[in-house]
Amino acid sequence: MHSLTRLLSALGVAALLAASPASAADIRVMISAGFHGVYSELAPAFERVSGHHLITTRGPSMGDSPESIPSRLVRGEAADVVILDGGAADELGKRGLVQASTKTELARSLIGMVVQAGAARPDIGSVEALKRTLKAAKSIAYSDSGSGTYLSTKLFAQLGIADDIAGKSRKIRGPPSGEPVAAVVAREAEIGFQQVAELIHVPGITFVGALPAEVQPVFSFAGVLTQTVQQPEAASALLRFLASSEAVPVISEGGLMPIAGR
């Protein structure tokens, strides 16, 4: 049975509406790329059973590009809820842009690597193998959001190769105006890194695997209500829906890890 059909069957209309406001609402959502695939699968089910309408804007979890979620919130773009990297959600809370107490963990994610379809799969099974692969690669692409920030500001330096690869690595601007790292690899870059959920469904690439556990920062995705939320009850209902145990199959199929205990 398709995940969406299974979800609708499991939840039932009454169960969701019992915890939602009686009248339909427009819910403005800002979301980063990592959870967007899962959200796109689940959103029609939520709209169908709740009667609410989702108005969605995409942008990176962090950074100072005009499209990033922090930049959008700072300049006053309307949003009821944001769904993004969990650490970025915490930073927004510190800046007073979201209601930190409403943060809801939705899924966990790993950073992975891809190569062009048909290319040999480099060894990244250990930290030393990963280091050799990075040094040998002719070109490296990474994202402008959470995973890329970790690579460029922490991992490359930790491996002692930041200077060695500086001239052959580049940051890729993601959607909405940009593209997934995997699309750049499919077209031109030799290897690319991004969160697994953002890599595995792009054509023209081969997924090599996740970073070794010793250097793998397990990212989370979370939803949180903004300080300017206009539809708090409906937005909270959306977060409950996305965090429900019935959403677990869709999260797993999307390349993410469900939160333990659901």
Question: Can you put this structure into words, describing what you see?
Answer:
This protein is α/β, with parallel strands linked by helices and 262 residues long. Helix content is 39%, strand content 22%. It contains 12 helices and 11 strands. The protein has helices at 3-11, 13-17, 33-50, 69-74, 86-94, 127-136, 146-158, 162-165, 181-187, 196-199, 232-242, 248-253, and strands spanning 26-31, 53-58, 81-85, 104-109, 111-116, 140-143, 169-172, 191-195, 205-210, 219-225, 257-258. A 6-stranded mixed β-sheet has the order 2-1-3-10-4-11. Strands 7-6-8-5-9 form a 5-stranded mixed β-sheet. Helix 3 links the parallel strand 1 and strand 2 (53-58). Helix 1 (3-11) crosses helix 3 (33-50). It is globular. The model has no long low-confidence stretch (mean pLDDT 90).
Characterize this entry briefly.
With 262 residues, this protein is of the alpha/beta class. Helix content is 39%, strand content 22%.
How many helices does DSSP assign? 12
What composes the largest sheet?
Answer: 6 strands, mixed
Q: Give the amount of beta strand, in percent.
A: 15-25%
Gyration radius (Cα, Å) is 19 Å
**Widest sheet: strand ordering:** 2-1-3-10-4-11
Q: How does the helix and strand content classify structurally?
A: alpha/beta
Identify the overall geometry.
globular
Element-by-element helix/strand order: HHEHEHEHEEHEHHEHEHEEHHE
Number of strands: 11
**What are the segments in which pLDDT stays under 50 over at least 5 consecutive residues?**
none
Distance between the termini: 21 Å
Q: Mean pLDDT, as a whole number?
A: 90
Q: Roughly what percent helix? A: 25-40%
